[in-house]
Amino acid sequence: MTLTVVNNATCTFCGCVCDDIELHADEIKIHKAKKACVLGTAWFLNHTAERKYPDALIDGKEATLDEAIEAAATYLHEADMPLVYGMSNTTCEAQRECVALADLLGGLLDSHTSL
Amino acid sequence: MPKSKFLPRGRKDRTAVLVDIRPTKSAKACDIFLQVRPGKDFELITILRALIKDQKVSEEAVAETGVSLEQCNDLVDRMKKAKFGCMFFGMGLSMTRGKHMNSAALLTLATEMNAFTKFVAMPMRGHGNVTGADVVMRWQTGYPFGITFNRGYPRYNPGEFSTVDVLVRGDTDAAFIIGADPGATMPQPAIDHLARIPTIVLDPHITHTSKLSRVHITTSVAGISAPGTAYRMDEIPLPLKPALKSPYPTDEEVVRRIKDAIAKKRFWMPEGEQMITAQI
Amino acid sequence: MLRITGGKIFDPANGIDGEVRELCVSDGKFAASVDGGRTIDAAGMIVFPGGVDVHTHVAGGAINFARAMTPEDHRRTQAFIRSQSRRSGLGGMAPTTFATGYLYAGMGWTTVNEAAVPVLSARHTHEELGDIPIVDKATCVLMANNEIVLDLLENGEYERAKNVVAWYIWAAKSYGVKAVNPGGVAAWKWGKDAKQLTSAIEGYSKLTPGDIVTQLAMICDDLGLPHPMHLHCNNLGAPGNISTTLDTLQHLEGHRAHIAHSQYHAYGGDDWDEMRSETVQLAEYFNTHPNITTDAGAVLFGDTVTITADGPWQHLLYKLTGRKWGNLDIENETGCGIVPYTYRPSNLVNAIQWAVGLELLLLIKNPWQVFLSTDHPNGGCFWRYPEIIQLLMCADFRNECLTKLPDKIKGRITLPELDREYTLYEIATAMSAGPARALGLHQKGNLGVGCDADIVIYEEDDDVARMFSHPRYVIKGGEIVIEDGDIRATPDGQEFIVKPSYDPGTDEFLQPLFEDCYTMAFENYPVEMERMENPDIRDCVPNS
Amino acid sequence: MSKITLRLKEQPTVPLEAEILSPDTFAELSNDEIRSKIVYHGKRQCRLDDFFDVDGERSDELELHGDLHRVRWIGREMSRGRITVHGSVGMHLGAYMKGGEIEVHGNASDWIGAEMRRGLIRVHGNGGGQIGAGYRGSLKGMRNGTIIVDGSAGLEVGMRMRRGTIVIGGPAKDFTGLQMKGGTIVLLSGAEIRTGAWMMRGTIISMKPIPMLPTFTYACQYTPDFLKVYSRQLKPLGIDLPCDSGDGAYELYSGDASVPGKGEILVRQAG
To answer: Is D14 in Cβ contact with A80 (below 8 Å)?
Structure first.
């Protein structure tokens, strides 16, 4: 089977964010991560494109994405002091949305930095 | 290490000094290893700050750090003679007793070294894109973390609005967790509070936090199956190039949809001034 | 669609000086006539084209670092409160992105030029600009300390340097070229500076700052960039730097240029004790060279934070103030220093700086050549521009301020001898039409048919500062964004960029050099077009 | 003028920001007006009487009852009058205070008297961290005034303080007197580590031995005359500061050499 190659891919495992990784992947998983360090290789090879988990869970039970989004929105909207936290393992685009969310909610906003 | 225009011999043109509480693999890769006693980093850096200014520090007092005055003097001498010095520091410094003051000590030392030569300092950030979170929060709110919007504009106070403190004190009544697993890393009282209140988790995996949450949504993995941008620890943004197609939506998409759903509900703040000049 | 009737129109681009005329707006642009839509009765009001800031620092790594350094200022400043549709923000010395848009629009400015973008952080700068609402944006990319460009100039490879500069502009999705302390920031990597235009730069055998000035100006002209080289001269802020500045201007050899924040470059005297204004000499140069423009970089008394790619100057300032200091290194492209600072009227040096900025605005005769700026945030915050307008329009007010300066200032400044007062027409030129033309943005600062309907309407008021701080209406692209002091709408602005043509072999030439000395992959370096929010590619007209 | 009494009737579930709990706000208000003042329960704007029973009006003397550990900013920027609290209070007690007195019969949290300018704050229980400190990024902490905490204190007591007096009865944690620029801190039960770190000026007096940073130098053993002034000033507040040479002497340390600073740490010798 031929693998697709992504050149100069970026590794977000640690803060170094190396951007010279050569990834060899099929539809499901990455088979090779050339130039990545031990940690980076493990990071790339451990993720797959499989549907391992349900789309969403509400109170531990499987739910649709739409239901989960509405439930999340309701909980956050009703809270007197909601908290938005984390944002390490995600993109800047998502981070911008998170700050916008905290701003809209009038809540707390914090990242890993404060730990 | 790369060879460069100004350092043509690469590694040979550089001096690497490691300061740690035990000899690690990195120690072998360095020219000099200084073994500091656990919990004495702040003292050692403060001594160095005094020594670069030719202030006297007693030999016995210095020795308590595990590093001798002679070693300190030698280090100061090398630092001053360097053409361009760079200090990297990690969580061994910033997460141990003294915390932000330990980092502040090193940053101050780097600043003060510029009276003699060129010096910079950089935190070795863990956790992928935590730098991006800092950068984004700064431009959108003016502050890097530890923020509240409860008065309708950003306010900042680490210790008051930082998550561990907020959770331990029980100061929040709903939590939205993304790209982190506090259920695995935070102190137990903080985790207990997360379990008490409605917690919502966005993550590519079912995490410890997911298990105590009311809502979990599975998302694609940044840089593997989700595109976007990440900031390197020196605040240089880099594009992400996913090699896989995820069956799950991206964080960005899900957060936006939650935001849009909330925007349809009643806005929480009563009409008032658009701009104020006296903040609390 | 919109009609504005009965207002006194000040439209220097079309020579209209206070005539009562009707303005019609359709599809965001001025039209000859319009059917239907809202009519604004502007009787008794003054109508200007929206302000254009030719030189400011509002987005990117440096200002974002300044934000992190000044939480104490964020706490004491204007706070914009969240509404259902509008983001919150904080003003002050280094405002947040959203507040930047609100504050500019709030005083009638609708276009801004972010004057210092390193290619490496261009992606970051554009992300921030995307979060500055209402105003349109342009950027200048830093070139005068880029080691690849400098090496080419050292080796006399002009053509290749021109291609590389063009490549960089497009890689950064930028609009123009900025030269900061040519050669000096590169030398700062060694803890050195470059103060003599004709001495070789530290680390180079023959390349001088003067060579960089001449050749970068020529490159900008040859590439036909709409905005000429944007130049921050060497030796900023130092007593006696007038000779460096005049020497620099001569090195332009007849090429177009915009000289940034001239105030910081017009000092005489050999040291701080002897420092004096040399604006008469500098203004004379501008008065006899109509192909160069400048902005004042005026200083206003009060707190601010200073940020500039001029690392050597910033370290000196830190040592002078003993306050906070931040310094950034942008690999082999440039660097940046950040120092909070308070300008005080009682401080002789600050008092001279204050006078010098105003003197330049008053001594340079043609308002099409000298523009309002504080080099935000360096000389003061942009939201204090109305104070400068008041100082320019009211000689009495100026004289009153002069009485608060130290006695020792006598004989060191020219300001007490100047009685010129700006007219509204001249203000409209210096805050809008002039900078728009210098930027090559012909659709801006112009109320003519077909131009962008960016308008600011003031209620006539004897209190000039009040009038200019609180426009009655601000209209951006035909949409009312400010009305009676309230923010009505926060549309996204456009970003102006250029794509100068370059030899397609430039990629191949650059890649190995790049891989030698950069820390990121060559392929990941240019900002992707799809990341740009509302880009507008403007034409280049190369010299044939 | 009678006093205004407020009793907490509803425990807030998240922090309650109540900077209006100040004599300056209430002095001219009727009971109805006081009841309708806005407090922030998390992000919700509520009436004061949603949380408190309010008796009295038009007074600059306030008496608060109840467990107020979630109530923040009590006495913020107050310039006159008196607040007495029977119970514990939350963060920022008396922050930016300009005058008057606050007395708490209970514990207080972080940032007691932060950046205060004048006035007296007395906490009979324990205090938190950053007492009399400067908020993040500020160049100066408290400018003047007095803060007395009978119990223990947290981190960074008196951080960047410029003038004024802080007395801590119980043990204080790390970084007491961090970057101090002036004023006096009296530690009746000593402190943990890094006391006086980076101090420029000012005096820290400890009645118990404390670990000393290596960048402090032992100067001499003596009983400074100025202690008599402090002693006289603190006596009416019930604090006994030994100042006669007969009571045993103090060891004087100076530092912090890393700044280099001219601060003083006096450590009382068991006499």
So the answer is: yes
Query: What ipTM is given for this predicted complex?
Result: 0.95
Residues B101 and B142 in one domain: no
CB contact under 8 A, C74 and B4: no
Strands of C226-382 (E only): list them.
229-232, 257-259, 267-268, 276-277, 292-295, 302-308, 326-330, 334-343, 370-371
Residues of D with CB under 8 A from a CB of B: 13-15, 17, 19, 40, 42-45, 70, 73, 76, 91, 110-111, 129-130, 135-136, 174-175, 178, 193-194, 197-198, 212-215, 217, 256-260
Query: Does B38 map to a domain?
Result: yes
Chain D positions in Cβ-Cβ contact with residue A109 (cut-off 8 Å): none
HSE-up of residue C165 (Cα within 13 Å, Cβ side): 35
Tally of structural domains, chain D: 1
Of D126, D14, D123, D117, the residue nearest D72 (C-alpha): D14
Q: Do D135 and C69 touch (CB under 8 A)?
A: no
Domain count, chain A: 2
Residue B230 distance to chain C (closest CA, Å):
10
User: Which sequence spans correspond to the domains of chain C?
Assistant: 46-496
- Quick check: is B148 in a domain? yes
Q: Say yes or no: B109 and B195 in one domain.
A: no
- In terms of DSSP bridges, do strands B215-218 and A56-58 run parallel, antiparallel, or are they unpaired? antiparallel
Please check whether residues A62 and A110 belong to one and the same domain.
Answer: yes
Answer yes or no: do B45 and B147 share one domain.
no
Cβ–Cβ gap C88/A103 under 8 Å: yes
A19, C82: Cβ pair inside 8 Å? no
Chain C touched by D135 (CB under 8 Å)? yes
Could you tell me if residue D53 is inside a domain? yes
Assess whether pLDDT exceeds 60 at residue C334: no
Parent domain of D16: 1-79
Q: What is the pLDDT of residue C432?
A: 98
The answer to whether residue B5 is domain-embedded is no
Give the nearest chain D residue to B51 (CA atoms): D258
Domain membership of residue A51 (yes or no) is no
Residue B271 is assigned to a structural domain of this protein = no
* B92 and B142 housed in the same domain: no
- Bridge partners, D84 (sequence order): D63, D103
- D215 vs B50, B97, B158: nearest CB: B50
From CA A105, how far away is CA C517, in angstroms rounded?
45
Q: Which fold has domain C46-496?
A: TIM Barrel (3.20.20)
B109 pLDDT band (50/70/90 cuts)? Answer: very high
**Within-domain flag for D187:** no
Is-contact D68 D85, C-beta < 8 A? yes
Angle at B104 (CA atoms; ends C314, D177), nearest 5 degrees: 110
Residue A84 lies in a domain: yes
Residue ranges making up the domain that contains B137: 130-263
* pLDDT at residue C310, as a whole number: 64
Determine which of A32-41, B105-114, C107-116 has the lowest per-residue pLDDT on average.
Answer: B105-114
Note whether A110 contacts B166, CB cutoff 8 Å.
yes
Of the candidates A19, A103, A104, the beta carbon closest to that of C520 is on: A19
Chains that touch C (3 or more CB pairs under 8 A): A, B, D
Question: Quick one: pLDDT at residue C318?
Answer: 65
**Cβ atoms of residues C17 and C9 within 8 Å:** no
Instruction: Read off the pLDDT of residues B123-182 as tens digits, 9 standing for 90 and up.
Output: 887 778 999 999 999 999 999 999 999 999 999 999 999 999 999 999 999 999 999 999
Domain residues for A8?
A: 4-46
Return the residue of B nearest to C522 by Cα. B238
Lowest mean pLDDT among C4-18, C19-33, C195-209: C195-209
CATH number at residue B66: 3.40.228.10
Q: Domain count of chain B?
A: 2
- Residue finishing a domain among B123, B142, B172: B123
